[in-house]
């Protein structure tokens, strides 16, 4: 049930008592006046009936009976009342409103029955003859001890009701004025009593909300003054304690929020107790929507649900790895029981570490070690084999010796190229980390033209056309030698994987936020599953074809690091059988 303010409990009560008293008084006065008015009217009608009794007595003798109706109508004109005379049988002898001959027998009328018994008959009812509510008064007409008839005088009750209604409205108007005055007084008294309590309530509400900067005013009342002083003392103590707790809470919140590890606490019913921002980010759920909700409603991954179930049922800490998003993310999870200060188990605490990047780096490292070992092993093995062949006697065979020496020289050049590319990558990483790569804002078309000139002789030999589309005024912040090296690598790759007679396009353009340089070929294309890894070192889509066309497998890795050194990135869009487009994205500003 909703609570109400004290003033709205006191004031309506005062007002209700006042209004009930006024209404009761008004009703009593109106009822008393109506009763008095009716009695007065009955007395007046009785007097009229008594006056007419003597005149009617003489007219009821034959042959003067026919004069009774005339007397009724004449009396009605003089007095404004309705006159009716009936015989003891109930036959109407005269009536001031209707023809007596057409009127019903009136022996059953209550007022006539009373009159025939020697009493004054009084009755109120609706008259179907006149279509009005009437007040009837009837008296007996006697000659000596013999009953010869009854005379009745009637008036419409409408006049009485109108008079009573007028009195009622006058009384009600006076009562309304009195009610308004008493209402104002009641509100003032209730307000004066409830205002100090309202002040105490607002002050206590401020204390509850943590606003302890102001103290409560102390009322003059002994009881309320003691209460205000007690609340002020409580506020002083709360301010000290809240200050300490606030500092601790802010420190804990800062630590909890700043953690890179995801932390979540779950109760025994597998409902979230707490979840930090890192945990919400790892689970991919809105932080504001997890409070008091079940894990199954928020987290759809079955591995995490199973790990939480195991942690809740295990008395010892557990750990494991969880694959999320169909293996796209890998989490290392640690679970332990969550206990309160008395050692009672409340739930379980789960700490999640995102080791996706770490495992990715481990895989890249393994692949790099394997790939570089394989790439270096091939020329080293070839050089060693042909050197041993020469030492075994092939040097004495001039034709074979020259052939073997050319092979050794080729493999040496390949080995040197791999080492130079590795050194280039190492130097790019170091210079980028140290901020040693300097960018200059200028036109990029000369850089593109220089890269095309370097690659054009080889392209001409394979009947491949290189086309350039770049606005003359296109400018960007760049390092010309590095950008040229990246474009040479991309154009050289496009030539290698394009068929003779095809075209390689170099297109540069500017958008709102970046400058893009795209190299498009019409080669065999790259399958979608390989596109995310082609910028890794020594990664080859088709090992046999890559060996055939040459290259160290480090060209695209160098392009990626050069793009990153320019605070940009490199992307690829390719469709197998239709060609590939490599795009270097540079910041526009």
Summed up, what is this model?
With 589 residues, the chain is an alpha+beta fold. It has helices at 7-59, 67-79, 110-116, 157-209, 222-258, 277-283, 295-298, 302-313, 356-391, 398-434, 445-461, 480-496, 528-531, 543-549, 555-565, and strands at 82-86, 92-95, 121-127, 132-143, 146-156, 262-267, 272-275, 318-324, 329-339, 345-354, 440-443, 465-469, 475-478, 503-510, 514-520, 569-575, 579-587. It has a five-stranded antiparallel β-sheet.
Oligomer: single chain
Shape descriptor reads elongated
CATH topology of the largest domain: Heat Shock Protein 90
| Low-pLDDT windows of residues | 543-550
- The CATH class name of the largest domain reads Alpha Beta
Annotation field: number of helices: 15
Structural description of this entry:
A hairpin with a 3-residue loop joins strand 16 (569-575) and strand 17. The strands form four sheets. The protein has a five-stranded antiparallel β-sheet. It folds into five domains: 50-161, PAS domain (Beta-Lactamase, 2-Layer Sandwich), CATH 3.30.450.20; 210-258, no CATH class; 261-354, 2-Layer Sandwich (Beta-Lactamase), CATH 3.30.450.20; 360-429, Signal transduction histidine kinase, dimerisation/phosphotransfer (DHp) domain (Helix Hairpins); 437-587, Histidine kinase-like ATPase, C-terminal domain (Heat Shock Protein 90), CATH 3.30.565.10. With 589 residues, it is an alpha+beta fold. The longest helix has 53 residues, at 7-59. It contains 15 helices and 17 strands.
């Amino acid at each position: 049930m909703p609570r109400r303010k004290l003033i709205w409990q006191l004031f309506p009560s005062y007002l209700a008592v006042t209004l009930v008293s006024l209404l009761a008084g008004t009703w009593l006065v109106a009822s008393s006046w109506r009763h008095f008015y009716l009695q007065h009217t009955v007395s007046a009608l009785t007097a009229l009936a008594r006056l007419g009794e003597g005149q009617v007595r003489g007219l009821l003798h034959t042959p003067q009976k026919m004069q009774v109706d005339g007397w009724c109508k004449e009396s009605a004109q003089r007095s404004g009342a309705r006159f009716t005379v009936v015989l003891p049988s109930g036959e109407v002898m005269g009536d001031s409103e209707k023809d007596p001959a057409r009127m019903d027998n009136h022996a059953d009328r209550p007022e006539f029955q009373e009159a025939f018994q020697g009493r004054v008959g009084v009755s109120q009812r609706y008259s179907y003859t006149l279509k009005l509510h009437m007040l009837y008064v009837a008296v007996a007409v006697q000659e000596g001890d013999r009953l010869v008839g009854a005379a009745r005088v009637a008036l419409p009750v409408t006049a009485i009701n109108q008079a009573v209604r007028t009195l009622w409205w006058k009384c009600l108007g006076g009562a309304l004025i009195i009610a308004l005055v008493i209402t104002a007084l009641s509100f003032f008294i209730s307000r004066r009593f409830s205002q100090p309590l309202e002040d105490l309530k607002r002050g206590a509400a401020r204390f509850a909300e943590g606003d302890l900067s102001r103290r409560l005013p102390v009322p003059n009342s002994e009881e309320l003054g003691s209460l205000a002083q007690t609340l002020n003392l409580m506020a002083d103590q709360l301010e000290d304690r809240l200050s300490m707790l606030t500092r601790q809470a802010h420190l804990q919140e800062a630590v909890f929020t700043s953690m890179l590890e995801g932390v979540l606490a779950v109760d025994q019913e597998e409902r979230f107790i707490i979840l930090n921002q890192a945990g919400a980010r790892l689970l991919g759920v809105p932080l504001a929507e997890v409070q008091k909700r079940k894990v199954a409603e928020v987290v759809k991954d079955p591995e995490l649900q199973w790990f939480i179930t195991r942690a809740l049922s295990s008395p010892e800490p557990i750990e494991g790895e969880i694959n999320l998003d169909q293996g796209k993310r890998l989490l290392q999870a640690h679970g332990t029981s969550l206990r309160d200060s008395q050692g009672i188990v409340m739930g379980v605490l789960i700490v999640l570490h995102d080791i996706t990047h770490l495992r990715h780096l481990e895989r890249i490292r393994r692949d790099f070690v394997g790939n570089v070992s394989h790439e270096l092993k091939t020329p080293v093995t070839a050089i060693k084999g042909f050197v041993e062949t020469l030492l075994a006697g092939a040097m004495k065979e001039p034709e074979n010796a020259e052939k073997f020496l050319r092979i050794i020289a080729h493999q040496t050049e390949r080995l040197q190229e791999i080492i130079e590319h590795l050194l280039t990558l190492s130097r790019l990483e170091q210079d980028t980390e140290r901020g040693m790569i300097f960018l200059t804002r200028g036109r990029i078309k000369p850089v593109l033209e220089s890269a095309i000139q370097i690659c054009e002789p080889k392209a001409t030999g394979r009947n491949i056309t290189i086309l350039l589309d770049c606005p003359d005024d296109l400018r960007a912040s760049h390092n010309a030698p590095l950008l040229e090296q990246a474009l040479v690598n991309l154009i050289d790759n496009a030539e290698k994987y394009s068929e003779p007679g095809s075209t390689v396009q170099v297109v540069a353009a500017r958008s709102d936020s970046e400058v893009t340089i795209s190299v498009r070929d019409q080669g065999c294309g790259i399958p979608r599953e390989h596109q995310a890894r082609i910028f890794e070192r020594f990664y080859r889509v088709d090992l046999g074809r890559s060996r055939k066309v040459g290259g160290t497998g480090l060209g695209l890795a160098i392009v990626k690091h050069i793009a990153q050194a320019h605070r940009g990135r490199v992307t690829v869009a390719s469709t197998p059988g239709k060609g590939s487009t490599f795009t270097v994205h540079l910041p526009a500003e």
